[in-house]
Design a protein that fits this description.
This protein has 2 domains: 40 residues, no CATH class; 181 residues, Glucose-6-phosphate isomerase like protein, domain 1 (Rossmann fold, 3-Layer(aba) Sandwich). The chain is 55% helix and 10% strand. It has a 5-stranded parallel β-sheet with strand order 2-1-3-4-5, with helices on both faces. Strand 4, helix 9 and strand 5 form a beta-alpha-beta unit.
């Protein structure tokens, strides 16, 4: 048996002995495998997680400065829904998922049992998205839907962590031209979307993950405010965790 094999066997036994188990302690065994293959071992994960949590809490804590903006947005959404209008949402990638999430909370429910509220995500119909992208270009995938579905008095929410997504900005401008109330969810700079929107929720961060985490929290707070304002039910009817 060569020395390398003897070393590997001893490490394997050490991995077994680390837990007293019949199977090896896999984090240690995998580290051995990394060393054998010449691959770079995994970094210290606790530091990565701690940094993410610290930055997340910093960004979320700074949202208290955004309360006036959120109150104005919630008020405009409530007025629109009470008047029979709707809320449209759109964005790209993770922001597309956020758009669908928020529309679902309003059409379905957030915490209270109540009637469905008119809300549409413009990110879900693949036939529309692909046909418009093919015929007119990807910049038009949301604006074309705004032209078709949006009416004066609706609330239109464009979500872009940079604030510069061309299709989001184009759709916000189309909605504004139709007389809709326009809202931008962005990162710290606000980008071009801030110049187009009536209201801009600019998350104080330049890190896309932290901005998205704050967007979803703010979306949830808006849903909570809308339900409490329009659909408040007696105690005991709140939704429970599933």
């Amino acid at each position: 048996m060569d020395c390398g094999q003897q070393y590997r066997d001893s490490c394997y036994r050490e991995a077994l002995g680390a837990t007293g188990m019949r199977q090896p302690f896999w984090p240690l065994y995998n580290l051995i495998r990394f060393e054998e293959s010449g691959m770079r071992p995994m970094p210290e994960l606790s530091g990565i997680f701690e940094d993410a949590v610290a930055e997340h809490l910093k960004v979320i804590g700074a949202l208290k400065d955004q309360m006036p903006v959120l109150e104005r947005i919630a008020g405009k959404m409530c007025v629109a829904l009470q008047a029979g209008h709707k809320i449209l949402w759109f964005g790209n990638g993770g922001s597309a998922a956020d758009a669908q999430h928020m529309a679902a909370e309003l059409v379905g429910r957030f915490l209270l049992e109540r009637r469905g509220l008119a809300s549409i995500a413009l990110t879900t119909d693949t036939s529309i998205l692909t046909s418009v992208a093919n015929d007119y270009g990807f910049e038009c995938v949301f604006s074309r839907q705004v032209e078709a579905l949006c009416q004066a008095g609706d609330v239109v929410v464009g979500i872009s962590t940079s604030g510069n997504s061309k299709n989001v900005c184009k759709a916000l401008q189309a909605a504004r031209d139709l007389g809709a109330i326009t809202v931008a969810f962005t990162g710290q700079s606000g980008g071009s979307a801030a110049a187009t929107a009536d209201e801009t929720l600019a998350i104080p961060s330049r890190q896309t993950p932290r901005i998205q985490e704050a967007h979803i929290l703010c979306g949830h707070m808006l849903c909570d405010a809308i339900e409490r304002t329009l659909c408040l039910q007696p105690a005991g009817t709140a939704r429970r965790a599933e």
